[in-house]
Amino acid sequence: MPKMKTKSSCKKRFSMTASGKVKAGQAGKRHGMIKRTTKFIRDARGTTLLSAPDAKIIKSMMPYAR
C-alpha cells in the first residue's frame, strides 16, 4: 500500500487536539474590522473547535493527524 497524502491546505490551517477534535482559527477577522462589533472581535480571539460534520471532512484530508 502506498502512503496516503495529507492535503497541504489542511496541514496549514488546522491542527488536532489530544482528544481528536479539530482546531482552527476564527473566521471573519481578515479585514473590515471597523464595521464589526467590539463583542464580535472579543469573542473571535484565538482559535475554535470545528463542529462534528466539518471535522469529519477535515480528518479525511489529514490521515496521519490522529
Summarize the structure.
This is Large ribosomal subunit protein bL35. The chain is an alpha+beta fold and 66 residues long.
Description of the molecule:
The protein is of the alpha+beta class and 66 residues long. The chain has a domain at 28-66. It is 33% helix and 15% strand. It has three helices and three strands; from the N terminus they run αββαβα.
SSE topology sketch:
Elements: H1 8-13, E1 14-16, E2 22-25, H2 38-43, E3 47-49, H3 52-61
Antiparallel strand pairs: 1-2, 2-3
Protein name: Large ribosomal subunit protein bL35
InterPro entries: Ribosomal_bL35 (IPR001706), Ribosomal_bL35-like (IPR021137), Ribosomal_bL35_sf (IPR037229)
Keywords: Ribonucleoprotein, Ribosomal protein
Report strand order across the widest sheet: 1-2-3
Amount of helix: 25-40%
Main structural class: alpha+beta
| Sheet with the most strands, sense and barrel status | 3 strands, antiparallel
Q: Uncertain spans, ≥5 residues at pLDDT below 50? A: none
Order of helices and strands: HEEHEH
Number of strands: 3
Integer average pLDDT: 95
Report the radius of gyration as a whole number of Å: 15 Å
The number of helical runs is 3
Give the CA-CA distance, first to last residue.
19 Å
Beta-strand share of residues:
15-25%
Shape: elongated
